[in-house]
Write a structure and sequence with these properties.
two-stranded antiparallel sheet; alpha+beta; 166 residues; 2 domains; 6-stranded antiparallel β-barrel
Length: 166
Amino acid sequence: MTVAAIIYAPATARDKGQRAPVLEAVVHCRSIVDNAARLACFDTNVATFDTAEAKNDVLVVDKQEASDTRRRLFGLALPALPMFRRDGKDEEVTNVEYKLLSARRDSYGKYTFVLDDSGGTWRQIDSTLLYKTPKAGAPVKITKGVVGNYFMNVDGMGGIRVHRDG
């Protein structure tokens, strides 16, 4: 199982590319030659790490959970987060697919869409007309465009420009 860990550390440590002290202490134990001393070091520092995790000072996230979170946050303006990095680069999600829970049309003819699986709420921001009323359960695909634009296809209809509200 691949595991990613987010470790909250002082900004100065992160800025210098250093590990958080709670992780550094565990890693340091590997360098101890004496078996008894190395085991004592691991016992002490793993207990500290476990306590930090229990207090939410350390968050351990597996690869699938990170992927699911990335999908749920699609379309929200967020800073780069360490759990989404691979080989020092941000992993970018370029499109997501959901099912439509509901669609509501406003007095200007624009839709607000609520999606399943924490896909959020999306609002139509262009004037493109849909040739049929979107129905609950319809498949929805949202694709990231250029310069922060997002395009939604509902039930195979042409793309409309949308913005994520929540």
